[in-house]
Amino acid sequence: MSVQIRPPILSQEGCSLRVDLRDKLNLEQFLKHRTAFCIGESAVHCELYEYAPDAPTIIFLPGIGTYCELYAELLCKLSQQGFNVIGVDPLGHGYSGGSRGHYTVAEMCNAVSDVLDVLQQRFKGPFGVYGYSIGALLAVAAAEKDERLSTVLCGTLLVPDLAPDLTYRMGWNWTWASSLMLPGYKVPLKSFVDFEQLLKGHPAGAAINNDPLIVFDYPLKTLSSLFNHRCNIVNRVHRFSAAILHGDKDEVLPVSYSQRVMNYCEQPMELLVMKRQGHMVPLLQPDLVVTMAAQWFEQEFSKEMAAAVL
Question: I need a surface site. Which of 84, 88, 185, 204 has the fewest CB within 10 A?
Answer without folding.
Answer: 185
